[in-house]
Amino acid sequence: MKSKLSHFRFNKREQNGIFVFIILLVLGFFIIAFKEHLFVGARTVSLKQDKVYEAQIDSLKQKAAAERVAYQQKPFNPNFISDYKGYLLGMKVDEIERLHAFRAKEQWINSAQEFQAVTKVSDSLLTAIAPLFKFPDWVKQNQIRKAAEPKHLSYANKSDLNTITFEELLQVKGIGEVLANRIIKYRTKLGGFLHDIQLKDIYGLNYEAQKNLLAQSTVKTPPAHSIRDLNTIEVIELSEIPYFNYESARDVVQYRKLHQKIKNFNELAKIESFPAHKLDRIQLYLKID
Description:
- The protein has four domains: 2-73; 78-146, no CATH class; 155-218, Photosystem II 12 kDa extrinsic protein (DNA polymerase, domain 1), CATH 1.10.150.320; 228-287.
- Helix content is 57%, strand content 3%.
- By secondary structure, it is mostly helical.
- The protein is built from 13 helices and four strands.
């Protein structure tokens, strides 16, 4: 029995060694357990940080996307589209280059139609981006002015100034009842208009109203008349021609007799009673041979 128990007997030094070994073993276990705890904790913190970083990145992406959309939707002058702006708008490289080449010549685009004509962008892209075009105020004012201007009809589609009615005259911008009556009365007095320039003689018919009227009508059926020679016509006959009265007709004939002959119409400006400002209309009725 003693021989068997002898194997389990340790001296004091061996017992101390075993005790130290057990302590070290336990200590190692606790160190491993603590490291595992630290690793798990650190991993948990790392995962949380990753989620925070991902959330921040997603937020930045959303912000960038929102800024990009806002940049795309912000009104802009198409004359200053950069390469990047053109890319965001969906323009092709050659379309952007055409725009830059056009601007390099110091030429300006003033409408969506001109933009398409220069860049050759598709109708669908133009429809999408044209509402964002922002032109200077003076361009808008010109566009409004042009839109307000009457459409110029072809000669075949214009009304005849010698047959246009009172009601038709009222449809012309700038002409009311008073002016419509004056136009018809003066036409009757002349026996019919010979030329559009005779509208200058109608009191109160300003340039804009004349332009509007002539955009839609013109003299198509002038009355038959003979152009008289200023060097042979007599006082009574001359006084019957529009723009002359007896006094001015007499002064013209006297001037002609005094100088034997009138060489050109500019001479008539020397006669005080002669209506030189109506010379272009007077030449519709007179000539100098």
